Structure formats: C-alpha cells, structure tokens
Amino acid sequence: MDQQNDVDSQISTQTFSLSDIVDQFRNVVKIYEKKPNYVFDTVIVGGGIAGAGVLRDLSSRGNASALLCERSTFGSSTSSKSGKAIHPGIRYLRMAFHRMMLAFKLRKDATIKQSTMENLRSAWLDLRLVWHGTRERMVLVNTSTGTVDVHPNLVFVYDNSPEKKWPVFFGILVYELFTTLWSFSHLKRRYGKVAIYSKVEKLQKRLPFLSSTGLEGAIQYWDGKTSNDQTLVIKALRDAVHRAGEKHPIYALCRVELVDYEWHGDDGCFHVHLRQFFDVDDLPKEVMVKAHTLTNASGPWIDHVRNRTSCPDQRTTVIYSRGTHVEVTNKFIHQQLSEHPEYRVGLVPLNAERQHYLRPFFQNGIWYIQCTTTDRHHSDPDKILPERDEIEELMSSYNHLVEDEWKISEADIFNVFVGARPLPYNNPNEISVQNISRMFRVNETRQGDGAIFDLINVKLTEYRWAGQDVGRMIKRNLQKRGIKILGASTTRKTAFTPVPGESRFAINSPQHPVGDMRYLKEKIAHYAKFQALNCYTDYMMNFGGLRDAVGFDEGGKCDVNWNIAHFNLDTMSKLLGWPDARRQQEWGRFTNMYRDLFAPIQNRIHGSGITQKQPEAYII
What we know:
Blueprint: H1 2-9, H2 18-34, E1 40-45, H3 49-60, E2 66-70, E3 85-86, H4 90-103, H5 116-143, E4 148-158, H6 165-185, E5 195-197, H7 200-206, E6 215-226, H8 229-243, E7 250-254, E8 256-264, E9 269-276, E10 286-296, H9 302-306, E11 318-328, H10 331-339, E12 346-349, E13 356-363, E14 366-373, E15 376-378, H11 388-401, E16 413-424, E17 441-447, E18 450-456, H12 463-480, H13 517-530, H14 536-542, H15 545-548, E19 550-552, E20 558-560, H16 562-576, H17 580-597
Helix pairs in contact: 3-8, 3-12, 4-5, 5-6, 13-16
C-alpha cells in the first residue's frame, strides 16, 4: 500500500492538449522524413476504452512502440455512452446459470436455439467474465486515482420477477464470494457488507421512499462506478503517452482517421495511410506509417475499418445491442440525496425482460439519477437516437419503485443519450442480443503474413484485461517473427499519474461550486490543458458541461441555464482561438444534437429552449 500511495502522490506536469497531439503528429511526420523504414509494433485504430487499454498496456512494457488514431475526439462515441458501471455483472452471472440450466435440460427458453455444447460454452465465458471482472474492478478502484469508486446496489425481487427470491439471494452471495476471494488473495479489504432483506418491512424502515407494491424482498451488494467514463479513457491514454520513452514512441492522435491499409510483403509490414483534420496549415494532410501488426479497436465500426483495404473480406463479425440512458433531477431529489447519505444506493429491479439500473450520481454540485436500460437490437451505429418507449420504460421502472413524492416526469429530464455496443456475431434466428455472452473477444485475422487483431465488446470494466491480452498477442507475433521480445505488462499495479488540479476539477468533486463563472473558466482551461478538449459538444455532453448548467426553477423542477452554456462556448472559443465561424458551427452542432435527443418527447422544453443569441459580455 505504501508503494501505491507513493505512486498516487506523484504529480505529472506534462500536458495532454490538442496542441500536444498536433505535436505528436508532427513528430510522426519527422520520423518518416528521417527514417522512412521505421516500423511501429502496432497501429491502433480507435481511441475509445478498448484502444486506450491496448496503448497503455504496450506503454507499460517499456520497449514497445505504438500509434493510436481516433477520427473524432477520444472516448466520445460508445465509450462515453455507458451507464458508468465498473462491475463484473450480476446479470452475466445470472446468464451463466441460465445457460447451464438449458444445457442440462432443466429449463427451456424459446429464444435460445443452441446445442448443449454451445450453451455450456456461453455459460463458461460468462462465468469467466464475472470471475476475472471482479479482479478488474479491484484493480481499477486501486489504480484509477479517484476516477473509480464503489457504491451499494439493491436488487429487488418482485412477484413477477423471472427468478424467485432465494435463488436470487444465493446468486448475489456467489457474486460476493468472488469479491471476497480476490480481496483475500490480494490482502485487500472488501468493499462493504451484503445485506439481505427477506421482509419488506425491514427494507422500508431503511429506505422509506420505496414502494412495496409487488415487492417480495431485496439484497444489497457492492459494485463499482466511474465518475466519468470518458475521463477514464483520457486518463489511460494520457498515462500511456506520458510513460513512453524516446526510443520507443507511444502516440495517441485524435482527429486523425485511418484512410486505408495494405500488407507489403517486400518489407514485411503494413502500410497505413492516415489523414488529419487539425486546423493547422504547416502540416501535411496525410502521412503513411508502417506497422508490424494492426489493432482494430473501433468498436461498432470494427467491420468497416477492417475492410478499408484493397482486399476486403466483407465478413460481418458484430451485431449491435443498444442501451438508453436518461438523466433526471429535481430540487426534491437533490435535497433528499444531499441530506440522507443512506439513500444513495443503486436500484436494480429484477424485471422479466430488459435489465434496468437506476443509480444516483453526484456531479458538478448536483445529485441526480441516471436510469439505464440495455439489450435492444440495433442496426446502424451511425444513426442512433432514443425512442419514446425506451424513455417511458425507464421512467415507469423507476416510478414503480418509489413513493409518489419521489416519482419523476418528463419535466425532470435534462439529458438523454444512447450507446450501441458491438457483440460477437451470431445468427439472429438462433439467439437474441440479450442472450449473447458478454465476454469480450479478440479475433485474429491475417493479410499476407500480417496479423490484424479485432477487439469486440470491450467494456469499461475489462479494458485493462483486454488490453493485456492483445499486448500478449502482439508480443507473441513479434517474437515468432524474430523482430523483438517485448517486456512484461505492469498495468495491474501501476496507478494513473495524476496532473495538477485533477481532483479540484473532477466531475464528482464535493467542492464543486454551482454557477461560479470563475471556477468554470478555470475548469475549461484545465480540461483543454490536460484532457485534450477540442470540441464543444463533447465537453457539454460527455465532460459534464451540460450539468454545470443544470438547476431548478421556482417550482423545484429541473431547469437548464443556457447563459452558462453560452459562457462555456465563449470561454472555449477564446481559449482555443476559434474564429466566429467555428464558434457558430460548434454551437449549431450542439443544438442540433440536443434537439434530436429530445425529439421523442417534444413537449419537453429543454431541447427547444436553446437560442442562437450569444451573451454580450461576462464579468469575471
């Protein structure tokens, strides 16, 4: 623990800004001007959580070189559209038990038409995911330097739940046993106690806001959550770049797109064609780099990226499962959660169909509740918007759990977003998306003698584990070809190196002032300097800028102060040197996207309350 604390206490003054990323691209250009035959160990396509895990693992090995490219901003797509859970997954344990019951003919399920061996394999994959996911949760809590913590959850069993009360309690105890075993083996203290509420009266005495309608019992367990999913991505990438040495460069490039790639047998490497979208005049628009391997961490765009070559395989390797997230608050909810710490517990109703997670969060000085649903089939990752029935489903699920004064309505919603998760492809006629194993997969394909590693379904919890697996595969490939022997991965015990002001400006900081313009200005400057801030919409939706504008009207309902939103844009424009045309373009992108998110509930005012008017001046 002392060694860990020493690592955590170290502060890096290295910046991680858009200008630093431009300099990295400039360094890449210089490398190929001086050494045209330089070959990276891998090029990683995709700057989400999966790509960040691979880059950080390779950086930790000491003698690996890698270049990561992301066409947009880091972590702004699927990785920032999650429920922020860091968990092995009680649902995955439940899926494993279900598949074992099917394999041994003890249960029937018309939605799963698979053989005994297929059911056993899926059960094994999900059990393995939960077992090692428990380890990964512990690793992230210990090394994330404040970005991941633990919190209690309550699983509720109803009279119409698909599982009975005592089997559910047994499953949660098995889940907690995994936590105990990992904690014992690493001499770590467990997160918290399991509490079984077999009688509803005992539960209501602790949480009087709960409704007892149809409720048969509940069990409390502990899991992890990240304060901000995109921040976790940024910190992993920043840490990888900062730990790299000059002899073995590690680069993380956003606003840089893979154009195409090709295996060249004459020099035994991939030629990878990249294009940059910086507003910088003295840089070439495109550069060709060389790599021994290619790592495809592009999430839902896995197949699209793999086929950007003259010899595409045209295979479909993923299907999509969408999850919708609704964020709500009002003055009553904020005050109750502020005054009663015992109420800050995640609510997990055990429903017959889709799983719902209803979690309280404290961000930017306000308590709110994020309602999350999972597992609806989706087809196009480039076109993904919420649907009204999903929003209504989440609101209904929450309102069924609580007494009248805690119930929410559309007027309490200030944000809606949707994420599409790629799952390993299965014939939809054989199995539905909610029954596909959630264990991540690394598919290795080849072009000539070159290896391409496709990462499928890497979630926040397993990103370090998946990155380490890919690092091992790259190590074996390089060693087999006689190129080099990479060092060992050290990410399991290596903490993220914090930067100045990180705890002060963290989205979950308890000292976060509400409506303080001076503080907001300093925070935007911090994000620009250390978290590669370069897009207004990204800051508003994924880094908490929108939550800075959230408040309450005279009736205690959720309200959005658009003056703060305008101030954020004004500050960012001046800081990053945007001309007026770019400023208007950024505002237009944000307003169009925000209106689209609220399209299913047109009666809501927040989406239509955005104006084009800019404030004349601010006194800071």
